[in-house]
Each structure stands twice: as structure tokens, then as C-alpha cells.
Amino acid sequence: MTAQVHHLRDNPARYYEVLGRVMSALRETGALGGASHLDWWPGNGGRTWEIEWQGGPFPAEVAVRLLGAPDPGVGDDQDDCAVRGLISPGRGENERAHLVVLDVPVNLRAIDPIGTSQVWATLTLAQG
């Protein structure tokens, strides 16, 4: 049995691979549509990744997209995910969602989120 990685400094390649996979999945799924000011940093003394944005969807909505589950009420058919099978849901709260990607915790947080349905309503009004 191999030991699990528990710290960024112990295996930086693995931690940066996780960040790359999550950022790629965020882009490919369009999970952060309507959000701005995306930021990320190592958290908990280098044991997690913290990803934060302003506006846009709630963290739980983003987690659903990253987990590959279809998001009801969204007008596209993007149900594919760059990290399918590699992430699992963790404990989540209203303002945060927690994922585990390749055994590395990833915390999602939104500042002043408006939710996916409001993002789509705003986009629809702007186009009409």
C-alpha cells in the first residue's frame, strides 16, 4: 500500500496536476458562466486548493457540473467533464463546495453568487 500525498511541498507535480484538471474542467464545462474575478491559491498550509470567483453560479452548481451530472434548467447539453471518474463530492455548504480530485481536496467558493438560473435569465434579457 502506498502512502497518500498530504502536502503540496511533498508532491508539487500532483497538486499542480489537480489544479490543471479542475481549471480545465471549469473551462470545458462552462461551469463558471457569468462569474468574474477568478482566483486560486493553496489552502490549509498547502494541503488543499482554494478556488474562488465573484458573481455567477453557486459553488454547489459548479460542483454538479464538474461531477458531470446534467444541470437541470440550463439550455446546453454539456454533460461531459474533463475530470470524470477522478473527483468525488465532499462536504458542502451554501457558500462553499468541497471536492476531492486525485485525493487532493479542492474547495470552491463564490463571493456574491447569483446562481445559474439568474445568470441565464440575465444573458437571455441581454440578447433579446
Explain how this protein is built.
The chain has 128 residues and is α+β, with helices and mostly antiparallel strands. It has a single domain (12-126), classed as Beta Polymerase, domain 2 (2-Layer Sandwich), CATH 3.30.460. It is 30% helix and 27% strand. It contains 3 helices and 5 strands, in the order αββαβββα. The protein has a 5-stranded mixed β-sheet with strand order 1-2-5-4-3. Mean pLDDT is 76; it is low at 70-82.
- Major beta-sheet overview: 5 strands, mixed
Strand fraction: 25-35%
The N- and C-terminal alpha carbons lie at a distance of 58 Å
* Oligomeric state of shown chains: single chain
Question: How many domains?
Answer: 1
Rg measurement, Å = 15 Å
Low-confidence stretches: 70-82
SSE order, one letter for each helix or strand: HEEHEEEH
Helix/strand/pairing class, anyone?
Answer: alpha+beta
State the CATH architecture: 2-Layer Sandwich
The CATH class is identified as Alpha Beta
Q: What's the helix count?
A: 3
Shape: elongated
**Integer average pLDDT:** 76
